[in-house]
Amino acid sequence: MPRRARTEADQRLLTTIGLFMEAHAGLVATFERRLAGQGAVTGQSFEILLRLVRSEGHRLRMSDLAAQTTLTASGLTRAVDRLERDGLVQRVSCDSDRRVSYAELTDLGESRISCALPIHLEHLAEVLEGALSPAELDLLADLMRRLRDTLNPAAACASEPGGIPEGVDADALSR
């Protein structure tokens, strides 16, 4: 099969996704360094605790939490096991559906993420507000939401009140 010649449009797509990936890698690395340097919770723990502290009742169904993070279902289970072992989250069963369990922030978990948030927010302000105007930040959020909704509809559903409807395969939503 002959190789397709790269067009200007192809170059634009490659450049755009390359810039996106490079920016993401830079953000993750710099945020991790800043948080770790101040003794705050980092990595997967930070991501999970942040999702929980921003959720109603500081808890999420495990399926919704998996959809909103960069973790697979099994990876999330292991991460929540570690957080539970460290006393930062607890698993709570659903009274109405025994198949459902929640990850819920403990008081210690809330304290740990509350210590990390000011560090993270200060750094976000430096990085994002230093590079983008308020209108550009709004536009970026809109564009990221559109990409997320297209590429990861399970996360979009999980972000809505009520989350992913029971019986809906979160992995299938993201295919």
Report on this model:
This protein is mainly α. It has a single domain (29-173), classed as Winged helix-like DNA-binding domain superfamily/Winged helix DNA-binding domain (Arc Repressor Mutant, subunit A). Helix content is 66%, strand content 7%. Strands 1-3-2 form a three-stranded antiparallel beta sheet. α2 (43-53) packs across α5 (107-131) and α6 crosses α7 (153-159). It is globular, with a radius of gyration of 19 Å. It starts with 7 loop residues before the first helix and ends with a helix.
Q: Could you provide a short overview of the structure?
A:
The protein is mostly helical and 175 residues long.
Q: Main sheet, how many strands, which sense, barrel?
A: 3 strands, antiparallel
> Looking at the structure, what is the overall shape?
globular
Oligomeric state of the chains in view: single chain
Question: Helical proportion?
Answer: 55-70%
Per the CATH scheme, the topology name is Arc Repressor Mutant, subunit A
Question: CATH-wise, what's the superfamily?
Answer: Winged helix-like DNA-binding domain superfamily/Winged helix DNA-binding domain
Share of β-strand residues: 5-15%
Write the CATH architecture name: Orthogonal Bundle
Q: Which stretches are low in confidence, meaning pLDDT under 50 for 5 or more residues running?
A: 163-175
